[in-house]
Amino acid sequence: MLEGYAPGFSDDALSMMSARTASDRAQFVVRLLRPGQRVLDVGCGPGSITRGFLPYVGEGRVVGLDASPGQFPAESTVDLVAGSVYDLPIASESVDVVFAHALFEHLARPVVALRELNRVLRPGGTLALSTSDWSRARIRPKTANVTAALRGHYLLRRRAGGDPFAGKHIAGLVADAGFGEVSTHARYRPDMSYRELARYVETRLDAALRTSPDDQLASAARSAWAWSHSGDGDFAQCWVELVARK
């Protein structure tokens, strides 16, 4: 299946990713870390979350990995390496904690990826994932234009090989990949304002139309324009935080 990164790497997307921190996005992981551990952050983007793990592992090691190394800063306090989640350049059973934030909703082969994460974890190691679930996002008011625009947004995600509702299924996939002691918790975050979300969706739909005209996306883009020019509202994304053991 075709796989890509639907949000892209425009300035607004990179700014959003760079603003993420471990204290905000990975507090459920931070409290599990111990001095001397080896931590792998898969799909680390610019490494802003990755860096936040370093104070908790002391003389341990923190590595960030991403398939798009163009996001990496020129200098970093942690090791950032290019690589695929489907073929990690990491030795088997060499990592204590594997973390991934906002990755699995973009993967076409999530179980294959999970088995690879299982491979690099030592026995008893920890898997920690934070995965969005758009089906539980809180969006109010959710007008007909909002619903139609989001439908186009979800279509773009699926055409890129991802699953906008991945958080709903992630626990079952983790169990299928051989992990045990799987637990999840839904956390809501105001990732952006209601109007910012409208503009974000509108921008992605417009960009897709420029490269591949499509009646379905054109209709969704018109709805996104109407949404972005409407009044204010509220948006909170649902992030499913999962912890499991090898």
From TrEMBL:
Keywords (A to Z) from UniProt: Methyltransferase, Transferase
Q: Name one GO biological process term.
A: methylation
InterPro entries assigned: Methyltransf_11 (IPR013216), SAM-dependent_MTases_sf (IPR029063)
* Pfam families assigned: Methyltransf_11
Q: Which GO MF term does the entry hold, naming one?
A: methyltransferase activity
Q: Which residues form the Methyltransferase type domain?
A: 40-128
Gene3D superfamilies listed in its UniProt record: Vaccinia Virus protein VP39 (3.40.50.150)
Tell me what this protein is called: Methyltransferase domain-containing protein
- Which species expresses this protein natively? Amycolatopsis acididurans
